[in-house]
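[agent] plan:
  1. take the single chain provided in the ticket
  2. run structure prediction with default settings
  3. attach structure tokens to the ticket
  4. add a short note for the reviewer (M.T.)
[agent] executing step 1
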Amino acid sequence: MKKRIWLSSLTPLLVLGGLAIAEPVTYQIDPTHTYPSFEADHMGGLSIWRGKFNSTSGTIVLDREAKTGTIDVTIDAASIDFGLDDMNKHAMSPDMFDVEKYPTIKFQGKLARFEGDKPTAVEGTLTIRDVSKPVTLTIDRFKCMKHPMHGKEVCGANALASFNREDFGIDYGKSFGFDMNVDLRIQVEAVRQ
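[agent] step 2 finished; step 3 output follows
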């Protein structure tokens, strides 16, 4: 009986000392530091076009102790930016993203692999033009730290994936010999809530 009393009296000290059992932590994606970008073929190998989306929101839930977590991201399809206004307008048209009919792109997934307490992959579902397909993101860089400006914990990552855009109903340029494969690169920062 004495052992039980002794351990229960230590519990508040363990919690205060940071030894409490870890729980999932929610992070809000920082839209000013998160830009999904992509690379796609132009004219069957003539050049590689690069673009990004300027408006992204969502949450990441991470439990480093249990090595689990989830990601829920929404991208404003009309925020596409190639650095060329005419190309942006064309990409927003029914030929490609058809943003009036399909205003958002979504990615929802689960953290699938870890090295220590750092996630290295996300297995999820990408939805473009209301078509959902499995996509695995590889995380090649991940770091959490106290933000030097606002003092909250912030986590950042670099994630990579490739997919066939024709699978999502975007086959513009195929008849001209465009390669349908797209390389996706995502820089993300998220602030602990």
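[agent] step 4 note for reviewer: The mean pLDDT is 91.
[agent] ticket updated
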